[in-house]
Amino acid sequence: MHTDTDLLSIAGKTYQSRLLVGSGKYQSLEQTRAATLAAGAEIITVAIRRVNIGQDPHAPSLLDYVPPQEFTILPNTAGCFNAEDAVYTLQMARELLNGHKLVKLEVLGDEKTLFPNMPETLKAARMLVQDGFDVMVYCSDDPIQARMLEDIGCCAIMPLASLIGSGMGILNPWNLSLIIEQARVPVLVDAGVGTASDAAIAMELGCDGVLMNTAIAAAREPVRMARAMKLAVEAGRQAYLAGRMPRKFAAAPSSPMAGRVNA
């Protein structure tokens, strides 16, 4: 359940939902919209190199199904393997979206792992920030690299939980915790979520949000999974705010032992 006092703030704008979703891999644009609505997402990321948002006036446009009047469109650079291509892609997106500044940067290292190329990511981040973009950035779960991206001026840090599309969940919660502990901007898990419990764990660790695509789109019932992810993110956030009980190495009775009635 959302509260007006617990909002996600990115680049000066607030959002009630802490679940961000992708727009690829669905069976149809109609299913994309249905899953996005079921997830309660307010931000939907779009691979500019793969999804039509006006580049091809003769093909169906995603924006007809998830219009900017209803959602924050987050252009991303999926498929880019160097800084120059990533910057050009987002400059094109800015033109297509009438000066839109909020973007998601990802510069990949190879086609097999889709692991981020951090030197090129840092280079592209500097170029984009200098060009006036608000940059959310996909990165490795390295606390030093995350700090460098924040120092450049990125408005959100998005470390991977595991490889893109792998569904392996959070493989290194300790690194994520280190990134969260030091960050002064939102930290959102990006890549590797497979099911609702993965999303809940990310939020329980203290992440500000979760971005996912394949976990929903590749589910047997994407719309139902979208609803599950919505609830998981909300539950994980509430558990984090509530503060979990300390772990103990001995049992502790739920009911007090003093004053018991003896048989």
> Quick one: biggest sheet?
5 strands, parallel
Q: Oligomerization state of this entry?
A: single chain
Q: What order do the strands of the largest sheet run in, or round the barrel if closed?
A: 5-4-3-10-9
Q: Distance between termini? A: 45 Å
Estimate the global geometry from the Cα principal axes.
globular
Number of helices: 8
Strand content: 15-25%
H/E element order: EEEHEEHEHEHEHEHEHH
- Alpha-beta classification: alpha/beta
**Helix content bin:** 25-40%
Backbone CA Rg: 20 Å
Mean pLDDT: 92
Number of strands: 10
Which spans have pLDDT < 50 for at least 5 consecutive residues? Answer: none
Protein model, in words:
This protein is of the alpha/beta class and 263 residues long. The chain has helices spanning 29-39, 83-96, 118-130, 143-152, 173-182, 196-204, 214-217, 222-242, and strands spanning 8-10, 13-15, 19-22, 43-47, 72-76, 102-105, 134-139, 156-159, 188-190, 209-212. The strands form three sheets. Strands 5-4-3-10-9 form a five-stranded parallel sheet. A three-stranded parallel sheet has the order 6-7-8, with helices on one face. Strands 1-2 form a two-stranded antiparallel sheet. Strand 3 (19-22), helix 1 and strand 4 form a beta-alpha-beta unit. Helix 1 (29-39) runs parallel beside helix 8 (222-242) and helix 4 packs parallel to helix 5 (173-182). It is globular and about 80 Å long. The model has no long low-confidence stretch (mean pLDDT 92).
